[in-house]
């Protein structure tokens, strides 16, 4: 009680503050109006004049008179002549703005009256309550006083309409009428249900009379009376108490109250009143669910059912739902949710199911009558599936299986019957067919045996497929998910997949799922629907996930593929390898998307190729795959890149020798002198690499129509394997396995391999230019890295041979220069040739002075021989460049000549002393001058360009 008084005091303070604020605003407006009326009106003239505003006397704004508050009188303006063509027409007078509903107008103008009326109603209720609690009055006196108080309030509302002081303000009559109506409802409820002073029939008749009176008063006084009648009608039972009288009279009372409010909302076009009445009814239903035991809630369920249907039927009569048709769905969905909440309180009994299914049937019927309400049927299906899942999760659920059957028949039947009306009915047909059975099997699979589940799932799958068939004319070439052709096919596939899981063991069910994908792909090609084309990939994803989740079933198969494990049983070969490969290939062939076709084709090829190593012993895995790749290439498989993919798979299964060879290459690049010890057995190389490469090469030779790009890639792969094979074979004869053999034979073996690569690049320069360039680059890289950096014979002891000009070091550099001569047309090629020739000359001098082992210090003789030989080479280059007019050779000759000159005078003459040293430096000066003069006279062939500054 104290809390209520505190709220009333706070509210009253806010209202008083608002009243004073509005009074100050009104005074300011009156002052402005008085100021405008004191200004003289200036008649319009044709000439422009300047007027001086008149001063306003202070006494004109000091006081407010009643005349100032009166509305201004519109002055009569004499008619003016029509303007001529030269005169502009006067602008039309501005329209007065429409009054806006602002926060101030609501809180300051309407809310105080409404709160006052509500306070009157509460005061009457609390007075009666206080008299009851204190025992001052008996039941009859209390009821009589409450009724008299209500009648006085209603009489006061009619009196307020006639008294001059209040008839201009309709809000006073509205508040009194609303409070009186709410008080009458409460009085009748107290007298009939609480004190039993009147019988049921008399109470019912009086409630009808009060309802009619409330309707009449609301029609006379407007919405505020209706609001107060609504609030009072719903709050009265709560304040008076209802526990002792039972739930029956209360529900009858609420039904009559809501019916009266519905009638009033239809009569006045108040959709908000109908929705508010519906909300009040559902609020009372929730309160009763909380406060009453389960046995007393049957009537509440019936009340909710009637309320949802009645509100849905009443809302169109208000005329305000045309612009917002979704408002008509609010009572239906609220009723479904309310019954969903009520079902656990009724222990999911047959009564709760009957109420829910009856309301669901009503939603379907209303959706059939009015297309704007069809969405309610979809909401009913979604909520009833939630209810079914909750019921089946209970330990005992005797009514749930029968309810699932009724749900399926109701929604699937309605959807199939009204399928052509729109996509929502197609969704209803699909959801009604698939939803109940999937929920049932997911929550309680023990309801039926696996065979019974299989038959039921297949039958419902056929029903969903029928939906897709009947809506096939709605297929779309764009990727759009529709509940008809796409939704029906998806639901049919899902049900068929679950049926396969019930009937077939793993891994055989995987093939069944992939077969479903084939069916969807075929249906996609038949209809031309792009979304179905994507849907056909889902069974493959499901199968992949199932395989990942059940790796134990494929463990033996994968071991036989990847290792030397024994071959799996024939059943596994068929179920895991053969059938999936064929079904995935069929799906890819039927699809219309080129990307999907290629991806599925590659997957099918990989699965099919896995059969080869699964059947063959481990040493022959790569050979068998090479044969399979050759057959794929020669057989013209309609899959771009199939041959290359098969070749890559073959290389993948040769991972062991390839890994050994890669490790060998890494060690050799880092300077290992004995890579022969790291070579895999030559038999493994020939069986695992050479034989598959030979088979693939033979297939490429037979397949003349292969695309050039793919042929080139395949040729490069085969050539790489061939190079590796030749390298392994070339390492076998000398078998350099210790340091002694490396010192004796290492240089000869390395030079032979390098020159073989360069010779192969030169031989293939015309027929296979890409492969020829690759061999040349590899050979040059070997020469630079091994012969000049890591294993240079000047640093690492190696026998180059006893012959001065025919030793390995000289021939190696000379042959490199010869192979580089083919690129002499390019500038860098000419310099590379000159560098190689210089290295060959230097190697010959080193061998002449040191013999077969080139390590050791440089002597004086060797030093002078270098100078002489390089000087001769420089003169040769310079003369050739002058004769052939080749700028690069002239530059190279002069550069080499400069280097030799510097070497002679800085290095060779370093041991000289005295005059010789002086002469050496003098000669160096003249030599350098001569080089400059020669460069200017011989190298610069173009005429000098005149300097614009000096000329």
Secondary structural class: mainly alpha
**Which radius of gyration do the C-alpha atoms yield?**
52 Å
What spatial form do the alpha-carbon principal axes imply? elongated
User: What is the number of helical segments per DSSP (H or I, 4+ residues)?
Assistant: 36
* End-to-end CA span: 114 Å
Question: How confident overall, as mean pLDDT?
Answer: 75
Q: What kind of assembly state do the chains in view correspond to?
A: single chain
Helix content: over 70%
For the secondary structure, the number of strands is 0
Largest sheet, strands/sense/barrel: none
Strand content: under 5%
The low-pLDDT segments are 1-16, 39-87, 102-111, 941-951
Annotation keywords:
951 residues; mainly alpha; disordered C terminus
Explain what this protein looks like in three dimensions.
The structure is a single chain. The protein is mainly alpha-helical and 951 residues long. The protein has a domain at 1-33. The protein is built from 36 helices and no strands. The chain has helices at residues 2-38, 66-69, 103-134, 139-162, 164-167, 170-194, 200-221, 223-240, 247-268, 271-291, 298-314, 329-345, 350-369, 374-392, 400-417, 423-443, 450-470, 485-503, 508-527, 530-535, 538-549, 551-562, 570-590, 594-615, 621-634, 642-652, 655-669, 682-702, 708-734, 739-763, 769-790, 808-820, 827-850, 860-884, 887-906, 915-939. The radius of gyration is 52 Å and the shape is elongated. The relative contact order is 0.02. Mean pLDDT is 75; it is low at 1-16, 39-87, 102-111 and 941-951.
